Amino acid sequence: MRVLQREESHRAEIEELRQALLSCAWVHRRKDEEEQFRGRIGTNKDGNDDVVEEKVVCVTSGVSFLGLAIVSKLLLRGYSVRVIVTNQGDAEKLREMEILGEMRGANNKMKAVVASLTEIESLAQAMEGCHGVFHTSALVDPAGVSGYTKSMADIEVKASECVMEACARTSSVRKCVLTSSLLACIWHDKSRDDLPSVINHECWSDESLCMDKKLWYALGKLRAEKAAWRVAEQRGLKLVTICPGLVTGSEFCHRNPTATIAYLKGVQEMYADGLLASVDVNRLAEGHVCVFEAMNKTAFGRYICFDRVIRMEDEAEELAKATGMQIKRTSGDSSSDFRIPFELSDMKLSRLMSSRMQCRSEC
After folding, report:
1. Rounded CA gap, 82 and 113, in Å?
2. Residue of 55, 111, 221, 265 marked catalytic
3. pLDDT band at 16, cuts 50/70/90?
4. Which residues contact 1 (CB under 8 A, 6 or more apart)?
């Protein structure tokens, strides 16, 4: 009996020692990953292993359709990326993608941090040490894929305010790029006589019109962007906003269902007015990084981003087939005599991206 007790005691001691060794190894591994993330990003002019702060950035909603594209672009450009996710499951998803090699350029330069987009303190802690923040504003509608509710617009605004305030509370964040929407620019009361024929970055949607038409996604993006500008001005934070058209790309309806359906509310009117535009997710991600890198010099204010305006019937049919939504002009409008009342302009962003690409090729 005593022999059995001694053996059990011995096994318990061995197991305790094994657990202690595993715990110690885990702690050292985490410390090594932190050192790689924080300190082995680059060198200064003297060749010392100092942190190159501008290469450490943060992306909110980093597992969203757009968020993943931005993270990928940043990693390929040599940035270390802290990805804010709202739950541990998303953190594990990112880790699996890194292990499987789906996030090219990661190499321990990507780290997931769980934080709520409506809790300033947790956001500030997650952002501390980063030089810039990309707030993709990719919130999930509690109602699922059925659309974007009015209450969702309020959550969008609160998240925008909290992210901006959290940026201001850190000792490191100096710049923020916020993803708004083209819908924050295009909805106007067409009975007005002073409407511009060209819709560009200087245009703002009519808030009361969005409410009357129950365009909650447009309303949420509009109010969230205005809230971000208000906090940025009050707190002295450098901000740039990007207003993209409908975000498309491989399987975009499946990978981005709520935002796609919500964006297309009022699609018939957008199509008739020449304001139905889309942008590939990779071009949009490239635009975000381009603007961020130019914020110290030439980038400022708002930017409209699209690569395609749906004008022809065959284009509308193609989008309708992809989304499962009917997209047609009102009856009586023929393609031969139909006049489009508005024109979209993304000249500001196009010029910036062209100049940056030219600079890179020459350098």
Report:
1. 7
2. 221
3. low
4. none
136-166 pLDDT, tens per residue? Answer: 987 766 665 567 888 899 999 999 999 999 9
pLDDT at 319 over 70: yes
243: β partners: 304
CB 135 within 8 A of CB 178: yes
Residues 76/104, Cβ–Cβ less than 8 Å: yes
Measured CA to CA, the distance from residue 334 to residue 319 in angstroms comes to 19
State the amino acid at position 255 in one-letter form. Answer: R
| Triad 96, 99, 103: Cα angle to 5° | 85
Alpha-carbon distance values, 187 to 146, 147, 266, 269, 342 (Å):
22, 18, 10, 10, 11
Q: What's the CA gap between 54 and 80, in Å, rounded?
A: 9
Q: What is the largest CA-CA distance in the chain?
A: 100
How much is the pTM?
0.82
Alpha carbon distance 353, 361 (integer Å): 12
Domains of the chain: 54-245+280-304+332-362 (3.40.50.720)
Query: Would you call 221 a catalytic residue per the annotation?
Result: yes
- DSSP H helical segments within 40-112, as ranges? 65-76, 88-99
